Amino acid sequence: EVQLVQSGAEVKKPGESLKISCKGSGYSFTSYWIGWVRQMPGKGLEWMGIIYPGDSDTRYSPSFQGQVTISADKSISTAYLQWSSLKASDTAMYYCARHAGTPGPDYWGQGTLVTVSS
Amino acid sequence: QSALTQPASVSGSPGQSITISCTGTSSDVGGYNYVSWYQQHPGKAPKLMIYEVSNRPSGVSNRFSGSKSGNTASLTISGLQAEDEADYYCSSYTSSSTWVFGGGTKLTVL
């Protein structure tokens, strides 16, 4: 069974750094892209970017390029999304999603709620 | 990359059929048969309902169907049931080798 298990909710202050995780199991982690999707409170889904754990090839939406960093550690089947300096506007639910190639996201993690507040 | 355009809301009575549209450009929806649809209930993660325009994953009811014409894709739900009430999102592969979502449509079952 394909599973993506994300790290727990985070509460941070503006300016702090953060790295959240997504651990894949039940499939060959290095053979599928893993992407990240943002959902701000009461809003829709926004595709942020994607990584291929097999070779760490990474792509970003223009809206998120330079704002976040996506990485992966294939030795532990885990993908990451990180911020170097959080803003209040980063408050959102973040989902990781396996991408079945060009068809796009198929399996999703349960989400990680990130709250940034002073 | 602009979000794909979906109606903000649609509604229907139990047993009826509804259709949700998803309009993009020739650089996304119109250029590839890689349109997917997702259902999201409040407080839950999205669930894949349709992939590659019209294919249903195993376990998804055949009441859900997808199609595409030009730059517009559509999701049709027939025989509406109360449990279908949720938010629905389309997504498409793009010419930039990225993906883009629609703004989402809230389905209300009257």
Tell me what you see in this structure.
- The complex is a heterodimer of chains A (118) and B (110).
- Chain A is an all-beta fold.
- Chain A has strands at residues 3-6, 10-12, 18-25, 33-39, 45-52, 57-60, 69-73, 78-83, 92-99, 105-108, 112-116.
- In chain A, the strands form two sheets. In chain A, strands 2, 4, 5, 6, 9, 10 and 11 form a seven-stranded mixed β-sheet that branches.
- Chain B has 110 residues and is mostly beta strands.
- In chain B, strands 1, 3, 4, 7, 8 and 9 form a six-stranded mixed β-sheet that branches. In chain B, strands 2-6-5 form a three-stranded antiparallel β-sheet, with no helix packed on it.
- In chain B, a hairpin with a 2-residue loop joins strand 5 and strand 6 (72-77).
- Please describe the biggest sheet of chain B, giving its number of strands, its sense, and whether it closes into a barrel: 6 strands, mixed
Strand percentage of chain B lies at 35-45%
Named at the architecture level, the CATH assignment of chain B is: Sandwich
Overall pLDDT confidence of chain B? 96
Helix-strand pattern of chain A: EEEEEEEEEEE
Task: Count structural domains of chain B.
Answer: 1
Shape of chain B: globular
What is the C-alpha radius of gyration of chain A, as a whole number of Å?
13 Å
Global Rg of chain B:
13 Å
Q: Hey, which two chains have the biggest interface? A: A-B, 27 and 27 residues
The strand count of chain B comes to 9
Share of helix among residues of chain B? Answer: under 10%
